[in-house]
Specification:
The protein is mainly α and 158 residues long. Helix content is 72%, strand content 0%.
Length: 158
């Protein structure tokens, strides 16, 4: 598998931006704007897990290329508006901060579920979801961040 094929496979494994209707299936009532905030956090969480899998499975010389190809696929296939953004450049800065935050937490040996709980805390703090929906949001975040799938996809890349 080439770096381009790896980036394409990883992108294809990512969930599409979550919608109000999908959140309602989890019993979470949100507005369109709130759903976009949740979609953005899910995107950040997935990109964190993907880049962590890339770091663990891919030779260093290919890591940056795969990361850039993946981000290019995200920006080509989805609109910034899907995530409540005016422009992708705005998100890139936010993503860098979020990835650093998640990385620091994982360095403290948090589990994937604990990282989802942190994402839920962030969304609750931003008032994207009600604190009453916290448990439902955790289930949604776990369902929408297929951690193990990303590592499995990269097993064939060398």
């Amino acid at each position: 598998m080439t770096p381009k094929e790896a980036a394409t496979a990883l992108f294809n494994a990512m969930p599409h931006p979550v919608t109000v209707d999908q959140m309602q299936e989890y019993g979470i009532e949100v507005t369109e704007a709130q759903a976009r905030q949740v979609a953005r956090e899910i995107l950040s969480l997935n990109l964190y897990w993907i880049l962590a899998a890339v770091d663990a499975h891919i030779l260093q010389k290919y890591r940056g290329v795969i990361g850039e190809l993946l981000f290019d696929a995200v920006t080509a296939q989805w609109t910034a508006a899907d995530f409540g953004l005016g422009a992708w450049a705005e998100y890139r800065r936010e993503l860098d901060e979020r990835l650093g935050h998640y990385c620091k937490l994982m360095d403290d040996r948090l589990s994937p579920m604990a990282l989802c709980a942190e994402a839920a805390n962030l969304l609750e703090d931003q008032r994207a979801v009600s604190s009453d929906d916290r448990q439902k949001l955790l289930v949604l975040l776990i369902d929408y961040a297929p951690v193990d799938q990303y590592a499995a996809l990269l097993d064939d890349v060398r």
